[in-house]
Amino acid sequence: MTHVVITGTGLYTPEHAIDNASLVAAFNAWVDQENDRHAEAIEQGQREPLAHSSSEFIEKASGIKSRYVLNADGILDPARMRPKLPQRQNDEPSIQCSMALSAAREALASARVDAGDIELVIVACSNLERAYPAVAVELQHALGAGGYGFDMNVACSSATFAIETAANAIASGSVKRALIVNPEICSAHLNFTDRDSHFIFGDACTAMVLEDAACASADESYEILGTRLTTAYSNAIRNNAGFLNRVTDSDPLAEDKLFVQEGRRVFREVCPMVASMIAQHLASLELQGSDLKRLWLHQANRHMNDMIARKVLGYDPSAEQAPIILDRYANTSSAGSIIAFHLHRESLEAGDIGVICSFGAGYSAGSVVVRRR
Questions:
Q1: Cβ distance 21 to 75 under 8 Å?
Q2: Fewer CB atoms inside 10 A, N or C side of the chain?
Q3: Residue 225 predicted with pLDDT over 90
Q4: Residue 212: exposed, middle, or buried by beta-carbon count in 10 A (0-12, 13-18, 19+)?
Q5: Which tens digits make up the pLDDT trace of 304-338?
Q6: Is 361 helix (H, G, I), strand (E, B) or coil?
Q7: Helix (H, G, I), strand (E, B) or coil at 276
Q8: Are 36 and 211 spatial neighbours (Cβ–Cβ below 8 Å)?
């Protein structure tokens, strides 16, 4: 029987960080400009004035205090309110490939695996910078990896869905080693002029090496005991940007071409779905919440994580049991749970069990139960 193990992880963190105070200052300056521009309509009651944001509102609503981004200047410019990234030429590495290279090299080094021994590369994230050629094939070429690669998108659950895909490929014997990379440029799809969501996302890239345990040589490894995936269609989180926009004559700059969500509905519907999925997954492995040493949850909202962890464990989790990284990274979509796993597993001992869990648009959710070897 083939045992699949996670033997290495990597993390790329952008050099630019924006704290809540700086983000709020830029947003409020934009709000003042817009209210001044529409002062007559506001005075005549034809238009409601836009409201300011605040650091207190952001932290209370989400638990987020700061975020890393590829470009801060464009986001903090009230005349622009979006990142400013130079277009790269076709003979240059793409932005996501560059991010992926950094995270992948760290993961390969920690796994003690040469890039040439990788037989499967999956780039899994919420937003890909182009339709083709696949970023995964570009990364495969840049690393000098073998085998094959492909891109996949299951929004915030992309990493866990990719883990099951890679684990199945290894378990079937078709490959021995796989590399999963999650290059998330969330700041590019975020509407920084929307008070309810302008603070949610940050940028980051994670990477994981999965291997057949029989050929693994890393000092540290985590056996995948099982995976479980679920989807349930919902419009509560949506992004309508796509190649058909130009033929349907829709406005490419319209608000629905960026991230939009019904936050309260998402909270109400997703939390019980995810908690139930984890509980059922554990039960299928003859485990229960009390067997878990760690919950590495998707990092979207502190209140969601607390509720899900409480339902799974049966009590309020400690900071060690359900680590939070969104306070400084914000929501990094599929990378969030992997960042938590990457940064918060050092105290686990052989035999300790944890769950990597993602959830988000779709709805989609994924659970990966691991045990330290």
A1: no
A2: N
A3: yes
A4: middle
A5: 999 999 999 999 999 999 999 999 999 999 999 99
A6: coil
A7: helix
A8: no
Integer-rounded Cα Rg, in Å, for the chain is: 21
Residue 264 clears pLDDT 90, i.e. is over it? yes
CB 69 within 8 A of CB 83: yes
Place of tokens 């035999």: 351
Would you list the DSSP string of 161-220?
HHHHHHHHHHHTTS-SEEEEEEEEEGGGS--TT-TTTTTSB-EEEEEEEEEEGGG---S-
* Cα–Cα distance list, 44 to 31, 38, 242 (Å): 18, 10, 38
Residue 314 phi, psi dihedral angles, 5° rounding: 90, 5
Q: How far is 97 from 99, CA to CA, in rounded Å? A: 5
Give the pLDDT score at 1: 82
C-alpha distances out from residue 23 to 47, 60, 185, 212, Å:
25, 15, 17, 45
Tokens (6 digits) for 138: 């570009």
Q: Exposure of 143 by Cβ count < 10 A (0-12 exposed, 13-18 middle, 19+ buried)?
A: buried
Terminal-residue alpha carbon distance, the chain: 16
**What DSSP element (H or E) covers 12?**
strand 4-12
DSSP 8-state code for residue 80 = T
Cα–Cα dist 187/335, whole Å: 14
Interatomic CA distance for residues 200 and 205, integer angstroms = 17
3-state helix, strand, coil in the chain (%, to 5): 35, 25, 40
Q: What sign has the CA pseudo-torsion 157, 159, 160, 166?
A: positive
Which amino acid type is present at position 325?
I
Cα–Cα dist 229/180, whole Å: 17
Beginning with the edge strand found earlier in the chain, give each strand of the sheet holding 203-212 in spatial order.
148-152, 120-124, 177-185, 203-212, 4-12, 222-231, 364-372, 353-360, 292-297
The Cα 50–Cα 194 span in angstroms is: 10
Mean pLDDT for 289-295 is 97
Residues acting as catalytic residues: 156
